[in-house]
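Cross-posting from the modeling subforum.

Setting up a comparison between two proteins and wanted a second pair of eyes on the formatting. Protein 1 (sequence, then structure tokens):
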Amino acid sequence: MQSLSLIITLVVAVITSTIAIWQARTQRVRQVEDVYVARYWSLLDRLSPQTLRGLDGHALREGEELAIRLYFRLSEDQADLRAQGWVSDDTWRDWSGAISSQMNRPPFDRFWAETCEDSTAGRDYAFTHLRRLAQNPEYDPTPTSFMRRSLRRIPWRSRRGNRS
């Protein structure tokens, strides 16, 4: 009878610990996402309404080109975090759609082409994820570690939309 009680106690302890770890990790993922959302809004605050609307042919204000180029680096960081498992499926779906859309609007598209040239020439980051996302709006960086890839395949995880 004591061994049964001990087994039940151990099972309850393992389940409780697993839930606590899962909740802590979920909270950390949300905190990381919040930091990147704050960085995104701080970059958008540097842009004029014409630039935000995607109007081409207007003179950029001082610092707007820098803000756009920093946006590309932020977007690459976001994709890299996704590959490391620090961005949730729902958040990545929102971020990737916004990134793809933004990169195809003036003047972002012009600076993206220049950034790719600089990157190819070795004068800037490789932008591996961002290049793939520019070619395929459905691109989703897969987690790099075996454990994170395995957890994405758990059958009870919800699968909505075109997520991998």
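Protein 2 (same layout):
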Amino acid sequence: MQQDLRIISRSALFSRKVFPVIWLTLTSLIFLSGLYHTKAFSIVFWIPLGMIIFMAFSLKKAFSGIADWVYDNGDSLTFVYGKEREIVYLKDVLNVNYQSMGSPDKVTLTLRNPSARGQSTNEVAFLPARINWVTGDISFKHLRRKNRLVDELIERVDTARRHANNAG
């Protein structure tokens, strides 16, 4: 069913699963190596431990609530969170926020009604697909990375809201 639809997000698998495992493994090895090779207590033990704690909180904040995949249905978007699916109609989107100069770049949609996933928030987020992988169409005029898919989504949301306001 979903194979025919256009995917407008990229997978968060590397950012959410692979990178944290690599980071935690390397810093844990540094910490354990320091414990093994040093006979007395040293302040150096706190640096890898602090790195582990900092990255755990940073990754949790950066990737909480991000959809695994987002499919474009024309007048709606289907957000996939594991086995759960949520359909968001473009006419119900109040705001499209594109954070482009962070890592990772992220699109957050503010909805009229709270999300159907049981959360009290009215926001859904995803990592947008990149057209140009290396530079991402960097615009120094606006000091942001441009993404044509996001610009198109913003225009479609505005059009859907105008049609909904004219019909209702």
